[in-house]
Design goal:
The complex is a heterodimer of chains A (271) and B (298). Chain A is of the alpha+beta class. Chain A has helices spanning 2-12, 17-26, 127-130, 133-139, 143-148, 162-173, 234-244, 246-267; strands at 38-44, 48-51, 58-68, 79-86, 89-100, 103-116, 119-123, 177-180, 184-188, 191-198, 205-215, 218-231. Chain A has 8 helices and 12 strands. Chain A has a 6-stranded mixed sheet with strand order 2-12-11-4-7-8. Chain A has a 4-stranded antiparallel sheet with strand order 1-3-10-9, with helices on one face. Chain A starts with a helix and ends with a helix. Chain B is mostly helical and 298 residues long. Chain B has one domain (5-134, 146-283). A two-stranded antiparallel sheet of chain B has the order 1-2. The longest helix of chain B is centred in the middle third of the chain and has 32 residues, at 101-132. Chain B starts with a helix and ends with a strand. The chains are: A alpha+beta (271), B mainly alpha (298).
Chain lengths: 271, 298
């Protein structure tokens, strides 16, 4: 399916505008038309993904084509593409242990109101090479720029913020923040493809895919698309039940304990 | 959860075996083991109440058949225990929000395990010592009734041959219920000696009555933990119950033809070791001082 779509895109970009529009309608489109000479067309390998408990992780394939408006703009081949996938946002608390007398306890904490629970960034070159630091920070290109950005919490970061660095480090270790400096591959000068991992620990919810097109450090266009991650299967049903029907869940656990205790007394009765 | 099912089953069976061997609940060994395996302390404590409820069901059924439960005393203990359990679950949730739950659990276990382990160790060493000298230790004498039994609100418990104020009884039950909810233990190893030595309840009904109280408090703790903290893992509970139930039966069978002194010494050393492990985790500088907690969806 994905290879087919990529192939279709590749040939479409060389055909008449009519065929191009038709293909674009088949793809998931979102975002607004950029003001520059270049326009981005973006498609995802799926819009809704249902995974089961035996799910070992999958990958999202992002396809895109760059349309050029005749003259002006950058030369083909100079393009850089950065694909960012953001999972559902949630409040996150980062705590730091410090010494109090002889013991180490959580003494400092910082709350971040809006942290994507999953973040993946793929780029055609390392993000440091794609754009300079101010541009990266403004467009939130790369994990570091996103974590340093002001959207995470009300208070903007001042200088080296150890809590933000810890958030980045720990989420990276868990495989929930991912960066692929060579994750975007150009299939032709105007058509690209990116594959980003979606680990089994990725949370369910709405995912946002943002594709940024740059050339020589200058942003040209951005497009966004989205997909939904849904979990099915026994474990997920249990988790939903435990959250939405917690009194019943608790009573079920109590009934289970009583039943197994009674069973044991029947099976192993000694008198 | 990255812990293997076989490890958990084996651990459940092992702790069940030890608990059957010594006639103890095993919660105070199982919960620390789960924490050391990397299961979040909140989940370990909340889920461990399920196997406690299961094993106390078995003991209560056996005790009822032998008519070894003082239901009247048991009802008073349940009353105090439920208040303690509710307070414990509330405290648990408050500490979790404040980010200090792991610390509270570690400190409480450290205090509990070193105290209990230390007492058991001195007791069994003294036992072994006097046996070697060929002299039996004098059995504990009855003595006079302590003053707190004469406090107001006295109540008669004919089955336990007890006429005592309900205040110390409720206080004891409250403390055990609270500790049980916060630590994921039944509390039998606090309740049994307290009933025996503080309230002078006859030996025949002590274990049955204590198990009766634990059954109710652990059932309520289980439901409250599920509602308030959403930390009960049903799959983990099934694994622990399965391992624990079988382990306890084999432990009880094995325990009947064993020399108890040596094994009591071993248990004391085991309890102390687990306590020291908690101390070590508290004192050693952490490799990663930071931790990330995601807020629950509301």
């Amino acid at each position: 399916m994905s290879a087919l779509l990529g192939g279709a895109l590749m040939s479409a970009s060389r055909r008449r505008p009519g065929a191009r529009a038709l293909l674009a309608a088949l793809l998931v489109l979102a975002g607004t038309r950029a003001s520059g000479a270049e326009t981005l067309v973006v498609g995802l390998s799926f819009n809704r993904m249902a995974i089961t408990s035996s799910y070992a992780g999958a990958s999202v394939a992002v396809f895109g084509a760059i349309e050029r408006d005749g003259q002006g703009g950058a030369r083909a081949g100079d393009y850089d593409v950065v694909v960012t996938i953001r999972g559902p946002r949630r409040g996150v608390t980062v705590r730091e242990k410090d010494r109090l007398g002889p013991v180490w306890i959580n003494r400092h904490q910082r709350k971040f109101a809006e942290v994507p629970l999953f973040l993946a960034v793929a780029s055609s070159r390392p993000v440091e090479a794609v754009a300079d630091a101010p541009t990266r920070r403004r467009l939130r290109l790369g994990l570091q720029a996103i974590v340093d950005g002001p959207d995470l919490a009300a208070a903007p970061p001042e200088g080296e913020d150890p809590f933000r660095q810890a958030l980045l480090r720990l989420r990276r270790d868990e495989g929930l923040f991912v960066e692929r400096p060579a994750g975007v591959r150009f299939l032709s000068p105007a058509v690209f493809q990116a594959a980003l991992p979606l680990p089994a620990v990725a949370p369910v919810g709405a995912y946002e895919v943002e594709v940024a097109l740059l050339a020589g450090g200058t942003p040209l266009a951005t497009r966004t698309a989205g997909f939904e991650l849904v979990k099915t299967g026994f474990e997920q049903r249990m988790a939903v039940f435990a959250r939405d029907w917690s009194p019943l869940y608790g009573l079920a656990a109590a009934a289970l304990a009583l039943l197994s205790g009674w069973l044991a007394s029947v099976i192993f009765r000694r008198d | 959860m990255p812990v293997s099912v076989l490890t958990l089953l084996g651990l459940g069976a092992l702790v069940g075996f030890v608990s059957g061997l010594f006639g103890i609940g095993g919660g105070f060994l199982m919960t620390p083991m789960l924490i050391f395996l990397g299961i979040p302390p909140a989940v370990a404590v909340a889920t461990q109440t399920a196997p406690i409820a299961a094993s106390s069901t078995t003991s209560v059924l056996a005790a009822v058949r032998r008519n070894a439960v003082d239901l009247r005393l048991g009802a008073v203990l349940v009353g105090g225990g439920l208040v303690g359990t509710a307070l414990g679950v509330w405290f648990f949730a408050a500490m979790r929000r404040a980010g200090q739950l792991d610390l509270v659990i570690a400190l409480s276990y450290l205090a509990l395990l070193t105290a209990v382990g230390g007492l058991m160790l001195t007791d069994s060493v003294r036992d072994l010592w006097s046996k070697r000298r060929g002299r039996a230790r004098p059995a504990r004498l009855g003595g006079d009734h302590p003053g707190y039994l004469a406090w107001p609100l006295r109540m008669r418990f004919p089955r336990s041959r007890l006429y005592a104020s309900v205040i110390p009884i409720l206080g004891l039950a409250l403390f055990v219920g609270f500790a049980g909810a916060v630590l994921g233990i039944g509390g039998g190893f606090i309740m049994v000696p307290a009933l025996l030595y503080l309230l002078r309840v006859p030996t025949g009904v002590v274990v049955g009555t204590s198990q009766f109280q634990i059954l109710w408090t652990s059932l309520v703790a289980l439901v409250l933990h599920a509602v308030q903290n959403q930390a009960v893992d049903m799959v983990l509970a099934v694994i622990l119950i399965t391992g624990g139930v079988f382990g306890a039966q084999f432990g009880a069978r094995f325990g009947r033809n064993l020399r108890s002194e040596t094994f009591r010494l071993l248990l004391a050393v085991l309890v102390l070791t687990v306590g020291l492990r908690f101390a070590l985790d508290l004192v050693v500088p952490p490799a990663e001082p930071f931790s990330v907690v995601v807020a629950e969806e509301r």
